[in-house]
Amino acid sequence: MKANTNAAWQDRIPCFPTLLVISAVLRVVLILYSEWHDAHSIVKYTDIDYRVFSDAARFILYPNLQGNIAKGPFAPRSFTVGDPYARETYRYTPLLAILLLPNEWLHPSFGKYLFAACDLINGALIYQILMSHILPYTKSLAPDVSAKNSKRFMRAHATLLATIHLLNPLVFTLSTRGSSEAILCTFVLSTLFYALERRQNAAAVMLGLSAHWKIYPIIYGVSCVSAITSQRVNGKGWDFAYLRRLVGRQALCFTLLSAGTFIILGVICYAMWGYPFLYEAYLYHTDRRDHRHNFSPYFYLIYLTYSSSGGTSADLSIWRQLLRSPFTSLIPQLTLSLGTGLVLGRLSAGLPFVWFVQTFTFVLFNRVCTSQYFIWYTLFIPLLVPCINISWKKWVMCGAVWMGTQALWLAEAYKLEFLGDDVFFGLWVRSLVYVASHAWVLGVIMSGYTPFVSSCNQQ
After folding, report:
1. I need a labelling partner for 430 at 20 to 30 A (CA). Which of 14, 106, 197, 357 fits?
2. For the chain, give me the number of helices (H) and strands (E)?
3. pLDDT tens, 60-88?
4. What's the rounded mean pLDDT across residues 260-280?
5. Buried b (16+ CB within 10 A) or exposed e, 221-238
């Protein structure tokens, strides 16, 4: 009777290619709707960032549009190349603007279709990782895996889990509105896939590319090096053999290759676009002081010490300078995200779980946090579900707390943004509730994690 029930459950799950088709159709419909909506409504569906990307691509393609010629030390003299950083608030790698050049010569929504395609690629990578490195070795699924219909069970289970990403409203809304996060997610998942496949060179190159695209994936390098070291050292202690392996040949090769990829891409971009690239893509984010409200409670500290009179930091008292300093948030943020990568990687926890914890702590303690940052760690949830041994009631509670605290914050932010009420202090209190509640959710997930014997443990 149980076998028949399982078989019926599997038969009700569509095959993965069908899920991809459904996901693709959904995104195409939303992109077409976005074009209609933007043409008929004052409040646009398309994200303002997409307009920034498109303008930057136009500036590259037409260098004489506003005299925006690339001024890098090795910019070509025989032909002119435009400067994407002539577009105010463009603070990304120039490679993104280059990818969106077809927005000018093909269709303005080309970038949205590109981001949607990356969504589908991410779903395929999640499915492949589940089939190859998660489900066959999950302890709770061992009886089903050994059964005659194990392959069919795993395909159905992997398809169901991939649905968490492909049909996630946050995911398909971001990509169809024109957020480029899907491309970064593709790079990160590719890095994870190659690491689990033990293709360390490919993983190192993809990690370097990911860090070039957006700097935060550099935190994954710590867990990768720790995992590589653990392959060669028996035991779990912090002995001399382990510390020696941290600077061993394999770990050193991985570090040099990933760092080399990051540096080479940076040097090429600097040679073409000069200091504006270096500042807008990287330096700006290290010293960003965003006094506008966002989920991070640091916004209120910056708001209280924000000077609109043009004064310098030297004019402020010591404690105000301390509150404004990026190190106030950077030290606890990097200590937690890098420390968890080193410790959990050493304990041979699965890399998807380690990266989830690292990213969650990085986002939670970041000095600026908006809704699109959540996709950085929710990306790994489909890979974690088989390894989290908690009741469905706790899952529901975690989801309710995770979404409820955001709704609580947004309700107060609405009063500030649209009604003009002076609710900065109340919003800050809700930001503290957000941090405490999301930290609790992370703690529940970590306490329910069940390690499994798989190739990602051997990583």
Report:
1. 357
2. 25, 0
3. 988 876 677 888 888 776 677 889 998 88
4. 94
5. bbbbbbbbbbeebeeeee
Mean pLDDT score of the chain, rounded to an integer? 85
Number of other CB atoms surrounding residue 293 within 10 Å? 19
| DSSP, res 81 | -
| pLDDT tens for each residue of 380-439 | 999 999 988 888 899 999 999 999 999 999 998 888 877 878 888 888 899 999 999 999
Task: Give per-residue pLDDT as tens, 75-124.
Answer: 776 677 889 998 888 999 999 999 999 999 999 999 999 999 999 999 99
Phi-psi region of 329 (alpha: psi -120 to 50; beta: other; left: phi over 0): alpha
User: Are the C-beta atoms of residues 429 and 368 closer than 8 Å to each other?
Assistant: no
* Measured CA distances, 129 to 20, 260, 266 (Å): 16, 27, 30
* Residue 99 · residue 297 · CB < 8 Å: no
| Residue 127 CA: distances (Å) to CA of 38, 81, 197, 231 | 34, 40, 14, 26
pLDDT for 424 equals 85
**Using CA atoms, how far apart are residues 208 and 253, in angstroms rounded to an integer?**
13
| Residues with Cβ within 8 Å of residue 228, at least 6 apart in sequence | 200, 250, 251, 254, 459
SS3 111: helix
d(CA 72, CA 60): 13
Q: Characterize 406-440 residue by residue with b for buried, 16 or more Cβ atoms within 10 angstroms of its Cβ, and e for exposed.
A: beebeebbeebeeeeeebbeebbebbeebbebbee
Q: Are 23 and 123 in contact (CB under 8 A)?
A: yes
